[in-house]
Model the fold of this input.
Amino acid sequence: MEDEDDCPELVPISAQPGPPAQQIPVTIITGYLGAGKTTLLNFILTEQHNKRIAVILNEFGEGSALEKSLAVSQAGELYEEWLELRNGCLCCSVKDNGLKAIENLMEKKGKFDYILLETTGLADPGAVASMFWVDAELGSDVYLDGIVTVIDAKYGLQQLNEDKANGLVNEAARQIALADLTIINKTDLVNKEELNQVRDTVRSINGLVKIVETQRARVDLSEVLDLHSFDSMDGAKLAEKLELAKPMRPHLDKSILTVTFEVAGELSEDALNAFIQDLLWEKKFCNKDGEPMTVIRLKGVVSFVGKAHQVMVQGVHELYEFNETPQLWEENLHVNRLVFIGRNLDKDVLQDHFVSTVVLKAETP
Amino acid sequence: MSHPWPGYRYTGKLRPHYPLTPMRPVPGDIQRPDYADHPRGMSESEQFLKGTSQIKILCPEDIEGMRVVCKLAREVLDIAAMMVKPGVTTEEIDHAVHLACVARNCYPSPLNYYNFPKSCCTSINEVICHGIPDRRPLQDGDILNVDITVYHNGFHGDLNETFFVGEVEEGAKKLVQTTYECLMQAIDSVKPGVRYRELGNIIQKHAQANGFSVVRSYCGHGIHRLFHTAPNVPHYAKNKAVGVMKPGHVFTIEPMICEGGWQDETWPDGWTAVTRDGKWSAQFEHTLLVTEMGCEILTRRLEENGRAHFLNQM
Done:
């Protein structure tokens, strides 16, 4: 009955799980309308003319579209492709529809070298990031490379200062909080003092972000692409960055700011999990005014009892993970460094709790 | 049989058997979920909460509602189980399921959910999940999963079991047995304070110990007034699922375990998920309520000591 349609015996594919041969980086580009995102995108496309780059505009909004257009630049030509967002298995699917659509397209039409995703000004880049920050076990073709925020040197401060109705986060501030790279654009439109103010404000929100200043979004592409902000490849670089993260006095009220601390010693992995979950999921920690702390971004390098390698900690909103880095502690002092970016953060409360519940073997420097 | 997708390379021996019978109507006096009447079958209530990870803690009245609907879903599955034998088509099973739902004043949840055309999912052999009931008669040696979800009084209840059709090969029996054990071991660990992401570790450990793999693309989910909602419950190890179990949480665990690789692909119908290597896959599912001391299996079988149907045929 089925025989007439039987296809010839197929060669079985190897059933090895694990990351595929070459993963494609996804860079999320966010920022207010007019800051220069599109200019940046166009600049990247023209500069990288021998790479095959996909550009997706306005992320994947409300689930109503069945198809979404994507622009592909190759050899200086720009052409359109279509992502099929089959609504079918939206329900219990682990991978986001948008992610699957990109993977399907690449399967049919070949891989890209880079994927750039521009989000609308009001979107939460953290939510978009989590679409692409998939578990390594899923063996996806893509990986989240980093979040780039473009801010207008002239109007940026005003946007950051905008008063939001009770409890709502200022989107501009959140975009900076989540950024791995912030591009302060249109520096030709402001004087030195104004530029310093913008830079200081960005720094006070996000103590870790790389800041680059540009005119007309012209930037050295090695600063924007291949950031590897979410993988453990660059353990040493991260540790260095954390050491340099200098928390500053907040420039804005009811603001997002960066809190860091370091504690020498070895940690219990279970206890750190519980600490982070209490902080990110249960929102159990409050500042001295009784307001619950909300963490938007979390980064750190820690030492677990029994593990010779340095472990990287990464978090975006409620998603977090630990990743062993190739770096060994060796004879160095086991300094655990954690950086939190968010609202109502209280360094003392966090550090006290951390020291009393998470540190198993304290070390004195 | 028809050839609906010329050029599509099937991964295994199974083929769709079209045409499908027209969509079955549900009497107007039965309460309908929001997506039942949406032209694309979209659920606005689910979309509204998309991306959130807050898990609802059900109040006593909601819990009672869930107990009732899960019991009804179990009755419908037991009826489907009775029909499984060589020669019966999956559409015939679907028809019986549809009538059983209506008789119990339930709306069959899959019907029109994102335009799904039938009242239950029937997944045979290499189909991982979301198989669409059609004209194909069951064959001796097949394994068949029937996935039932019903909607009653504003709540959804969801469960599935894999059944043997006639005489099944030893390898397939082992697959089905192991999959069931994966589910039951995961359920054994459910109690307040356990992280949702831990379930994947338990399931994958047992599957791998038996030489099988765990499907990664589909996961368990929160269920109550919404068909699919937070939490997300992946079945594979080392996942980043958000959330810790608390009394009053209700969710499903539904591992899909494969003889060969875990990679899946979807037929051009947009629903049927099959293994890429064409080897077989089995699944079991329960809806669970987290209680103070552990959990209550809301969709448990009330006779035969709660044993799954396939155990009668081992």
In short: Chain B touches chain A through 52 residues (CB under 8 Å).
